[in-house]
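can u pls check wat happens w/ pyridoxal-5'-phosphate
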Amino acid sequence: MSDYISLTDKEREEMLSVLGVGSVRELFADIPAELGRLKVRLSQGRTQKETEELVSSFAARNKVYKSVFLGAGCYRHYIPAAVGAIVGREEFLTAYTPYQPEISQGILQAMFEYQTMMCSLTGMDVSNASHYSGATAAAEACLMCLGKTRTIGVYDNVNPDTLETVATYARARGVKVVVLPSSGGKAVPYEGEADAVYMESPNYFGLVEDVTAVADAVHIAGGKLVVGCNPVSLALFRTPAELGADIAVGDGQPLGLPMSFGGPSFGFITAKKEFTRKLPGRIVGETADAEGRRAFVLTLQAREQHIRREKASSNICSNQAHAALTASVYLSLMGSAGLRAVAETCAANAHYLADKLSEAGAPRVHKGEFFHEFVTDVKGKAAEIVCALDRQDILGGLVLSPDRILWCCTETVSKSDMDKVAETVGRVLK
Amino acid sequence: MKTVFEKSSAEIKGMEMPAPQVEKHIFAEGLLRDGLRLPELSEQEVARHYTALSKRAFGVDDGFYPLGSCTMKYNPKLHEKLAALAGFADVHPLTRADKIQGSLALIDTLNSYLCGITGMDAFTTQPCAGAHGEFLGLLLIKAYHASRGDGARTKVIIPDSAHGTNPASAVMAGFEVVHAGTDASGDIDLDALRALVGADTAALMLTNPSTLGLFEKNVLKIAEIVHDAGGLMYYDGANLNAVAGVVRPGDMGFDVVHLNLHKTFSAPHGGGGPGAGPVGCKKALVPFLPNPRIADTDEGFRFNYGKRSAGRVSAFYGNFGVLVKALAYIVTLGGEGIAQASETAVLNANYLREKMSLHYPIDTSRPCMHEFVVSMKKLKDDTGVTANDVAKALIDRGIHPPTIYFPLIVEEAMMFEPTETETKEGLDRAAEAFGEIVRLAYADPAAVKRAPVTTPIGRPDEAAAARHPVLVG
Ligand SMILES: Cc1ncc(COP(=O)(O)O)c(C=O)c1O
């Protein structure tokens, strides 16, 4: 119970006598008496061993599957052991935001390198040092574009949690949200007015969108395009910047972070240069000390809440720095060839499974190219299929409706797993 | 030091991934990118690079870290092990509820402990940090007023001692900010407050103890004034480490609170995050909590979707891994241990302040809570040495500087928060170091202004960084 307190009883006595008080409670004299009388009831303390047993018993009540075909915003990828070993170093784990650059060069440099990697993946010019999640990154990116129409368009084929988060942030500020239609699972270029339009590619259904067509329409109407993307897919595909996006965002969890029941992961926000001073949150820049030695610092802080208060570009203070560091270490270990291999295997597996499921009577619902997720028509048997897979220690895809399952394949699933899924689906549908 | 990109070699291919067991998919040429610039290093080179970076960082295990308002307490090693258990880390958030009873039970248990600690009726764990919690908490307040047809409540009152996130969050939530004045000890001016509140008051945001480290004695009176005007009370829980287990915000008259699990509840800060900023509220605001809510039913824990939610603020259920650490902390300490932690945090702060006051004029007439603020204005007037200079000189003495230039209402502010986990020896040493720097400032101010000299770099040119931003390498 008191493992984490360092004072001895004798020291406590000495300290109280230095302060000239008889008991610690005298130091709480400012608290109105009527408040102090209320007793805070909680459980008894435990030893660390007991805590370990108790908390582990919660973990034991979750099912860990041999193979996972569920994605929809959170993905099981292979995580090299070196990632955890490196980021677990206490200097990274237990430090605060690097307010004091002289003793925080390591963290600042790692963030600078992170920003560089994110810009490299998305083709953009600038990146912040992370946001809470892909959903909040999308929301704040849309707010960065606010102009005279005070309207944000969001496609109906994006991740529903992201859509709802963007809507929450927008409506809070009195900004109108228009949900834009898709056809055949893909975004229909929108020609109406909006300050920002948010789309995803690959979208929620895994489809690779024609980003350029949407970008052109949005730009002609005077708006900005925010594109949400899966960072692993960017090892293969043309960058959002090349395709015409003004801001590219996404959730970084696929880059070496465990699923961890949905968090912590991190959101990335990368943008064209013109948006630099509108980015929310920490940004690291390179400079030098008086002797000309290379130095990294938190910079452009005139955007931030601690300086600008109600005029800040965002309220964000703490971000997801350690998760972003994890992604940087993962990307450093992978290199471009490693990340491309991961992406190619994901795509190969997904296309193999899609074919197999089609043969088994569950064809794809949408036409067009996809990355590592796709939707099949399972003819009212979605729940049965997922249950049958569960019995084989396989976490099936996401049930979108009784007729539709959204599948995901990463590099962690084997051919025999996929064959088993197809065989099971065939059996249920027969 | 070279960046990881500068250490790259084109000859190296990164980690070898298993080849696909199925046929490779060929995408149309037009979809594919040209090249991808990432670091190209062997595993050992990556390990060495990041290890070298880690040696240029300073964590709680490296030494005294009295960074005020941030509660840099020891982060128990056990918690890392627990959060990494496959039963937590390898679980997909969209798995069917009956297969993830452990995660749901954990969140539900944590929520009920947090209710017990704060005196709130329900919690949500969705917000990822304190500021994120503020945003959501204010949305709950907005939804509450709107549900009563009270659309005129457009203003949030915030004392000028508040953290910058408070006014920034109020604006994000669509409110106008009204500033409340504070007196020299950081207490809200009651008469001024009476004149400020009215039919347009949505809420008052308060940090208690205040950012000056002093308990707002009039908190019950303040709550009465705000409630009488029809407004609600918002508690910024950043300073809960002074009073957790001792008094509850709910009893002080607060209607909504956010907590910082990365402060009070021992989760590490990770060099800037992730944190967790769960939000609790009183019964009247519960219907507006974001979906999904977790319900404890006869068939086990289930997800519930309310119709009046103020809206989702992030994906899934927030930073679950951080919640595991906070729960482990609470069950280890228990009620008594949490109260003892708060008491010790307050004892350590008062002791450090007393010891430092032997070297420099510091008002010790009123006990401080878990932190205290020292103005270095006199030192600056006398010697030209600023709070920033003193901070840099502390670095050379192996101590992480306190928070500086916050709160804004104190000139040349230095805010010290030793936390309960610091040793007496550490406190004594810090007070000595502080005294030595003050004496040096009078004897040889230039020597203090040269600090730090023991670090890999000297003071960086921050103005140049902002003038000519170099943000990627
Ligand atoms: C008083 C106060 N309020 C709010 C915050 C914001 O918390 P977070 O950084 O978790 O968003 C802080 C953080 O330092 C704080 O000290």
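The mean pLDDT of chain B is 97.
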